[in-house]
Amino acid sequence: MKSPILQIRDTSFSYDRETVLHSVSMDIQPGEFVGVIGPNGSGKSTLLKLLGGVLTTDPGKLFFREKDYKDYHRKQMAQSITWIPQDHSMIFPFKVSEIVLMGRHPYLSAFTFEGDEDIEIARNAMERTQTLQFAQRGFNEISGGEKQRVVVAGAITQEPEVMILDEPTSALDIKYQIQILNILQQLNKDEQMTVVLAMHDLHLASKFCDRLVLLDQGKIFQDGRPEDVLKKENIEEVYGVKVHLIKDHDGDIMISPDTICTP
Amino acid sequence: MHSMSIILMDRKRYAGTLGLFFLFFLATLAITPLIGLTHIDLGKALSSDIAFSDNVDANILFLVRIPRIFLAALTGGALSVAGAVFQCLLRNDLAAPFTLGVSSGAALGAVIAISLGLSYTVMGIPTVPIAAFLGALGAITLVFSLSRTRTGEFPTTVLLLAGVTANFFFAAMVMFIHYLSDFTQSFRIVRWLMGGLDITDYKTLLSICPMIFIGFSILMLIGRDLNLISTGVQSAMSRGVDVIKVQKIGFVMASLLTGTVVAVSGPIGFVGLIVPHIVRLLVGPDLRLLLPASMFFGASFLILCDTVARTIIAPTEIPVGIITAVLGGPFFVWLLKRPKQ
């Protein structure tokens, strides 16, 4: 058995008085492609923010390579784990290339400019995500699907071992959804990048992920292979809708409502 | 095909762009001392044949105009850099020392120091600037905590309301102190509150240089961190930025810059709002270039505004704050009303 790359142990989390995670525990192995699913408000974003190190909690809860998050320096952590938000609103008119190069931050000391090597890394990341052709455009001028790819290019430029993405596909049309998921799958296959992402589309989740974690009201309802998690009774209980399952020709699961009018 | 096109900020281009801003600044510095009500004969002013005390041209040039222009440069530069930093830390481009109430916080600090009868420096320590710095820091702490939402954003409406509230509050306190003060103090306060660059000497100028230098240098050191914070606090964290530390350093240093120059020049509005916007249009939003470019451009901008203030209805000189407000008011309205992407 390999040792886990990420661990979260018996962790609860609340904003003010509202508890959004209740004693969640899970281990993630290196090279896994994990989908976090669940209804709105089930705690997906919070769980990912904790794993990504952008929300902090007590010591003894989160571990990267079996060492507590708290024992890493911020930049050291950022060289290993990156977290990508759901929303990419940008107030200032940064160019696409500038956004991507920001991924080099954890490797640079105070007041230095990115060197040739950094630029080369960013360029490769942009090639892989097909964003190089609009490198000089303003980030605010490109489409939602292009933005998502640019942000992923920035994350690749950070050269992490773990990439955590909060609903990278939710705001995109089907073409861009598949494009992003293909990029992530490639990183996962070619570089054994560990990928953890939140998703709403259960069919795509079953298609791309090796493992699904189904959250319900801040608790892990089930954690396992897609075919074990995406069961009729699980979906009906957690999402509160009547469904039936269909398998596509790859054997991946599609969810369809029993009736259009649910109470 | 595009292999080279993503290179954006190599050192040569950086130095070149900054060099242009520096040249513009030097040009303003060279030309504006010669503009004014009294014509100055440069040959005569620089002549060593006439004793300095008898040389009217030299007196006007070296004792009146040049210190005033240097003060305008320091004030304009410092307020612009502070404005750029506030805009970045609050992720809102309407933020500036004046709109946030930081200038009026600094004013309150300075007025308290003046009303306590403190002279400008006590045993070499510039007391009024320090009091103004503390006032500025208090103001930004107040506005920051009032306007931050749970998700760490600063919505424009809330931010501006917090700024207006801070402005009203500090103005009321200033009025209160002013009301209680005696005639001499009262005169000092009014004179200073009008905001002006005309009452200065080289000693005062030298005394504020170190604080401006420190504030600016430290802000330059955290330039890349500030860039990341301007794209979002949590993604900055995920890129390895110590957000809380950088926010603290940024706010303290921007307050230091604001407080220091407000202590000498009085609250001069809108410079810190206008200049970062213009410079951002010219060089982009990267703070590593935006900050020094704003320093030079802000310096030139306030020198030029002051030249207008000195000459527009000569022989009467009007406070430079009037000129910046006349330019800044409409600019602010435009920023509020412009179509958003």
Topology diagram in text:
The complex is a heterodimer of chains A (263) and B (341).
Chain A: E1 6-15, E2 18-28, E3 33-37, H1 44-51, E4 62-64, E5 67-68, H2 74-78, E6 81-84, H3 96-101, H4 116-128, H5 144-157, E7 162-165, H6 174-191, E8 194-198, H7 202-208, E9 211-216, E10 219-224, H8 226-229, H9 232-239, E11 243-247, E12 253-257
Parallel strand pairs in A: 3-8, 3-9, 6-7, 7-8
Antiparallel strand pairs in A: 1-2, 1-4, 4-5, 9-10, 11-12
Helix pairs in contact in A: 4-5
Chain B: H1 11-31, H2 42-46, H3 56-89, H4 102-115, E1 121-122, E2 125-126, H5 127-147, H6 156-180, H7 183-193, H8 202-221, H9 223-230, H10 233-238, H11 243-265, H12 271-283, H13 287-311, H14 320-337
Antiparallel strand pairs in B: 1-2
Helix pairs in contact in B: 1-13, 3-8, 3-9, 3-11, 3-12, 3-13, 4-5, 4-6, 4-7, 4-11, 5-6, 5-11, 8-11, 8-13, 12-13, 13-14
What does this structure look like?
- The complex is a heterodimer of chains A (263) and B (341).
- Chain A has 263 residues and is of the alpha/beta class.
- Chain A has 9 helices and 12 strands.
- In chain A, strands 6-7-8-3-9-10 form a 6-stranded mixed beta sheet, with helices on both faces. A 4-stranded antiparallel beta sheet of chain A has the order 2-1-4-5, with helices on one face.
- In chain A, α4 crosses α5.
- Chain A is globular, with a radius of gyration of 19 Å.
- Chain B contains 14 helices and 2 strands, in the order ααααββαααααααααα.
- A two-stranded antiparallel sheet of chain B has the order 1-2.
- Chains A and B meet through α2, β6, α3 and α4 of A and α9 and α10 of B.
> First CA to last CA of chain A: what distance?
47 Å
Number of helices of chain A: 9
**What portion of the residues of chain B fall into strands of 2 or more residues?**
under 5%
Shape estimate of chain A: globular
Instruction: Give the helix level of chain B as a range of percent.
Output: over 70%
| Order of adjacent strands in the largest pleated sheet of chain B | 1-2
